[in-house]
UniProtKB/TrEMBL annotation:
It holds the Pfam family Macro. Residues 241-255 have a biased composition (Basic and acidic residues). Residues 203-255 are annotated as: Disordered. This is MACRO domain-containing protein.
Length: 255
C-alpha cells in the first residue's frame, strides 16, 4: 500500500465539514487533530507511536507490524535503549518505514482493580510521546491505540484518556505541532473515537456563524431599504404651503 502523507490524513475540521462527525461547539485544534483508520506502518508522518512492551524488543500486534515493516535495524537500535518503563517513551529511527522516527511507548496492562493507576500510566504514554516529538522538532505524530489490544484497556476509557491528554498538551504547546493523528484499527476503536472526539475537539458551531451572517444580511437589507426612503422632513410641511393649514382645519372639521 502506498505511504499516506500527513497532509492527506483528514483533519477533524474537514471531517466536520463532511458531516462525518456529530456537532458540538468550537475548539481551536480541529485542523491539527487527525483521524484515520488503517495500518500505522503506512503513514509517512514525522513519527508513529508504537505500543511496545518494557523490553522494546518487539512482540505482536502493532509492535510486531512496526518491527516487521521497519526491518532488523529497528530491533538492533532498540537493544541499545535497554528497555523502557511503563508510561514512558523512547525514540528511534524508522529504517524501512515511510515515517521519519518511531516513538516506542509502553502502555499499562489494564488493572480494573486500580483503574486510576492504569489511567495515570496511559496519560504518561501520550504526554511523554508528545514531549519527545516536540524535543526532536517533529511536527506530525500518529498514535496507535496504546494498551487497547493485548493489554486490555477498555477502548472507550483509553480513547477518553488519549483525547484529554492530547487536548491538554495542545492547549499548552499546540503551536509546536502541526498534526496529532489518532489511528484506529479495530471497529471497537473506530466507534470510540467517532463518539469521543467531538466531545474533546468539537466543530465550530454553525449556528453562531449563521446567526452572524443572518444579522449582517438583515442590517444590509435595512440599509438598502432606508436608502430608498425620502429624506426625513426637517420643517413642518404646513410652513411650506400657507393654504395647507386652512385645508387641514376644514378636513378635520368634516371628519
Ligand atoms: N496499525 C495500527 N494499529 C494497529 C495495528 C496496525 N498495523 N495493529 C494493531 N493495531 C491496534 C490494535 O487494534 C490496538 O487498538 O493497536 C492497538 C494496540 O494493540 P496491541 O498492539 O495489542 O498493543 P497493546 O494493547 O498496547 O499491548 C502491547 O502487545 O504486541 C504486544 O509487544 C506488544 O507486549 C506488547 C503488547
Amino acid at each position: 500500500m502506498a505511504p499516506i502523507a500527513a497532509a492527506d490524513i483528514p483533519s477533524l475540521g474537514l471531517l466536520y465539514k463532511l458531516k462525518k462527525l456529530d456537532k458540538a461547539q468550537t475548539t481551536p485544534h480541529n485542523d491539527r487533530i487527525g483521524l484515520i483508520r488503517g495500518d500505522i506502518t503506512t503513514l509517512a508522518v514525522d513519527a508513529i507511536v508504537n505500543a511496545a512492551n518494557n523490553s522494546l524488543l518487539g512482540g505482536g500486534g502493532v509492535d510486531g507490524a512496526i518491527h516487521r515493516a521497519a526491518g532488523r535495524g529497528l530491533v538492533t537500535e532498540c537493544r541499545t535503549l535497554k528497555g523502557c518503563d511503563t508510561g514512558s517513551a523512547k525514540i528511534t529511527d524508522a529504517y524501512n518505514l515511510p515515517c521519519k522516527k518511531v516513538i516506542h511507548t509502553v502502555g499499562p496492562v489494564y488493572d480494573d482493580l486500580r483503574p486510576e493507576r492504569s489511567e495515570a500510566a496511559l496519560r504518561g504514554c501520550y504526554r511523554s510521546s508528545l514531549e519527545l516529538a516536540v524535543q526532536h522538532g517533529l511536527k506530525t505524530i500518529a498514535f496507535s491505540g496504546i494498551s487497547t489490544g493485548v493489554y486490555g484497556y477498555p477502548s472507550l476509557d483509553a480513547c477518553q484518556v488519549a483525547c484529554d491528554t492530547v487536548k491538554q498538551f495542545m492547549d499548552q504547546n499546540g503551536k509546536k505541532l502541526d498534526k496529532v493523528i489518532f489511528v484506529t484499527f479495530e471497529a471497537k476503536d473506530v466507534r470510540s473515537y467517532d463518539s469521543t472526539l467531538p466531545l474533546y475537539f468539537p466543530p465550530d458551531t454553525e449556528t453562531s456563524v449563521d446567526q452572524e451572517k443572518a444579522a449582517e444580511d438583515q442590517a444590509a437589507e435595512a440599509e438598502a431599504t432606508a436608502s430608498k426612503l425620502p429624506d426625513v422632513p426637517t420643517t413642518d410641511p404646513a410652513d411650506a404651503d400657507p393654504d395647507h393649514a386652512q385645508k387641514k382645519q376644514k378636513h378635520d372639521g368634516e371628519s
